[in-house]
Specification:
By secondary structure, the protein is of the alpha/beta class. The chain is built from 12 helices and 11 strands. The chain has 2 domains: about 100 residues, no CATH class; about 230 residues, Rossmann fold (3-Layer(aba) Sandwich).
Length: about 350
């Protein structure tokens, strides 16, 4: 625990002084007491419980004083709080391989159902945006608190060819940071059908200085990327992850389907798809996030439940003076109440 005004801690020396004063008053009261023919009989009549009870109000009052003195020193503690003003970007793979049925009823339907359940469980103040990516990336829904608009965007997914995982990350970043200098047209149009250097897409304005921050330090936003295959076009996802890491944004990656790979066919054509776990793990690690593998629809649901609990709370160094002051006031009232109830006086 850290204190903003540590000098006030010297006031805690009052506590042992009060203990000595209390002991002195008790000793003085014994000397001034009337002489009884048998003091032992009086002690026996009081009982051990009665003798102990008379010390409870002063002890509570002393604890109240300590709590108030600690509050005066303005302590800081790392506590878990509900995240405020948070935005979550869902970057979802809509490539043709998502029609594979190894995840029941198929990958895309399982992903849509899990995403909708995830959104329904989020606190209402959390904004969510949706990016759909295949051979290119498109912004399906701007960050919003409207759950109805988000569900409508998820239900409107259309499967396409290609897998540009890096583009999904970059377009999510462009949505979170409109002034980052990311060419959205290059991410969403025909230009994205061929691999492009990151420098061509992200052109930082020289007039705007940018200082990288620690990976994962930006707590106001996060990206969740769900995919079932390897990157076949667009921006290198590791380069995109570097952009996210420099801005402190965590990119949680979710791999859907089999790691070994599978050949799927549709309308006369076939393709071999394999989950690139190595890259997805590297993206998550670079941004100080986590990678999750979901081989079944139930796994995918559990992944989103886990992410919901982790993304809607945050650990933050917070001043707890008010809590200690409240505790001190409660202890003081309790001490006074017990003293009045038992002895008809306040302490």
């Amino acid at each position: 625990m850290v204190f903003l005004w540590p000098t006030f801690l010297w006031l805690l020396l009052i506590a042992p002084l009060l203990v000595l004063l209390y002991w002195w008053l008790l000793h003085r009261r014994k000397k001034a007491a009337l002489s009884y023919s048998s003091l032992a009989l009086v002690r026996e009549a009081m009982g051990p419980g009665q003798r102990l009870r008379r010390h409870i109000p002063p002890v509570l009052f002393l604890l109240a004083l300590v709590a108030l003195l600690l509050a005066a020193a303005r302590p800081l503690a790392v506590i878990t709080l509900p995240a405020q003003d948070q935005t979550i970007m869902l970057a979802m793979d809509v490539s043709g391989s998502m029609r594979a049925a190894d995840v029941e009823p198929d990958r895309i339907t399982a992903a849509q159902n899990a995403a909708k359940a995830f959104i329904a469980e989020l606190p209402r103040h959390v904004r969510v945006g949706i990016v759909a990516f295949a051979g290119s990336a498109q912004l399906a829904q701007l960050p919003t608190q409207s759950r109805e608009d988000l569900i409508k965007a998820i239900d409107s997914f259309q499967l396409q060819r290609g897998t540009a995982t890096g583009n999904g990350i970059m377009l999510s970043l462009a949505t979170l940071f409109p002034d980052a200098g990311i060419d959205i047209a290059a991410l969403g149009g025909r230009q994205a059908m061929r691999p492009r250097p990151i420098e061509e897409i992200g052109k930082q304005d020289p007039a705007k200085s940018f200082t990288p921050v620690a990976p994962g330090s930006y707590t106001s936003a996060a990206i969740i990327m769900l995919t079932d295959g390897q990157r076949t076009t667009g921006v290198d996802p590791l380069e995109a992850a570097k952009w996210a890491a420099d801005r402190g944004v965590r990119v949680y990656t979710v791999g859907v389907g089999t790691v070994q790979g599978e050949t799927i066919g549709f309308e006369g054509w076939s393709m071999r798809v394999r989950l690139d776990e190595e890259t997805l793990k590297a993206v998550a690690a670079r941004t100080n996030a986590e990678y999750f593998h979901a081989a079944t629809a139930e796994d995918l649901k559990k992944v989103y439940e886990t992410l919901s609990s982790r993304l809607t709370i945050e650990k933050k160094e917070t001043e707890i003076s008010s809590l200690l002051a409240l505790l001190g006031a409660a202890l003081a009232l309790l001490a006074a109440g017990l003293s009045v109830a038992w002895y008809g006086r306040i302490l």
